[in-house]
Amino acid sequence: MIKKQITGRLVLEDGTEYQGYAFGRIKPCSGEVVFTTGMTGYPQTLTDPSYCGQILVNTYPLNGNYGVPLMPKTLEPYVDEHGIPRDFESLSVQVSGFIVQEICETPSHFSSRATLSQWLEKNGVPGLYGIDTRALTQKLREHGVMRGKIIMEGKENAAVKAEPAHPVAEVSCSGVILYKPNNSDVRPLKIVLVDCGAKANIIRCLLARGIEVLRVPWDYDITSVEFDGVFLSNGPGDPKTCGKTIALVRRAFTAEKPLFGICLGNQIMALAAGADTYKLPYGHRAQNQPCIEVKTGRCAITSQNHGYAVREESLPQGWEPWFVNANDGTIEGIRSTTAPFSAVQFHPEGCPGPRDTEYLIDEFLLDVRRNIG
């Protein structure tokens, strides 16, 4: 355990306070307080761009027990030949703060080069441990997610960095990036990845299938380039703030080329089709969410991280629910009945979590090949 030197507290917007001890960077922060019930995978979870601007609470009591896989001495992420981080979903920690019950300072794993606390310190992210995270989670489940702030002893009057006004713009790539597969067909499929905060494993999954990936910013005019299909990525925040992306997807519909979306991409596709979205009371964040395919009744365990959902009754003619959440019945996927457009709310690429539904990426690519003829 970390030596109990500096105290801190999490203060929710309703005035409720939770006392704890500091780790990571000793500084205040603010953000929407959300929880995950995942039991493992904190390096991937904390680097998921969908968590940008949020204070994450982990219900699983022990964190940091297998350390963090980083390059020796520099403590920078390992990257592959494409510049994609190997063990993370982006190159830096994305959460504003991290709340846990217990933190391990003596990790045991062959790849560990830093403790969780050291890694958060390097990334400028504060954390609190010694908090009853399950009680805190019950509070958020009963009253819904709410804003909060972490206050550190001796830093009570320090300025808190402003939360991003447009988190998608904050985490999207700044320019066009082309990834060429190592082994591909003579003429590989070209997929445009609309980066609203894309996880690295989306790119890994596409490259592993011999796909050429053109990664573009969230507001890029995808109709200005040649492509065989479009992949709408995950990302943070309210989908209705992505008006430019919604308009561009609506234009892409007219090309009648296959489109596939995940997470935020599911909501953006729904809005582009004319449907509506709404905020969930506390969202779905974990690697153990059961989803049922409507037509087959098959259930899959999925990895999820979202706070908004598609309103089922708002789906226009020509669109139908594809998957639903087995716990609360919310929409977990939509698809067009007249064109090759589909999306899911969960993460087929997992990382962390199960990849039982990764076959959906293969089905999308099959649609792309069929469309080419």
Low-confidence spans: none
Number of distinct helices: 8
**In total, how many domains does the architecture comprise?**
2
Radius of gyration: 20 Å
CATH class of the largest domain: Alpha Beta
Distance between the termini: 60 Å
| Approximate strand percentage | 25-35%
CATH A-level architecture of the largest domain:
3-Layer(aba) Sandwich
Percent in helix: 10-25%
The main pleated sheet reads as: 10 strands, mixed
Read across the widest sheet, the strand sequence of neighbours is 12-14-13-15-16-21-20-19-17-18
CATH superfamily grouping of the largest domain:
Class I glutamine amidotransferase (GATase) domain
How is the topology of this model organized?
Elements (H helix, E strand, L loop, with lengths): L6 E6 L4 E8 L4 E8 L5 H5 L7 E5 L3 E2 L4 E2 L27 E3 L2 E2 L8 E3 L1 H7 L3 E4 L3 H11 L2 E7 L14 H5 L5 E3 L10 E6 L4 H9 L3 E6 L11 E4 L10 H11 L5 E4 L1 H10 L3 E17 L5 E12 L8 E7 L5 E6 L4 E4 L14 H14 L1
Helix pairs in contact: 6-7
Concise structural overview:
By secondary structure, the chain is an alpha/beta fold. The chain has helices spanning 42-46, 116-122, 133-143, 167-171, 200-208, 243-253, 264-273, 359-372, and strands spanning 7-12, 17-24, 29-36, 54-58, 62-63, 68-69, 97-99, 102-103, 112-114, 126-129, 146-152, 177-179, 190-195, 212-217, 229-232, 259-262, 277-293, 299-310, 319-325, 331-336, 341-344. It has a ten-stranded mixed beta sheet with strand order 12-14-13-15-16-21-20-19-17-18, with helices on both faces. The protein has a seven-stranded mixed β-barrel with strand order 1-2-10-7-4-3-11.
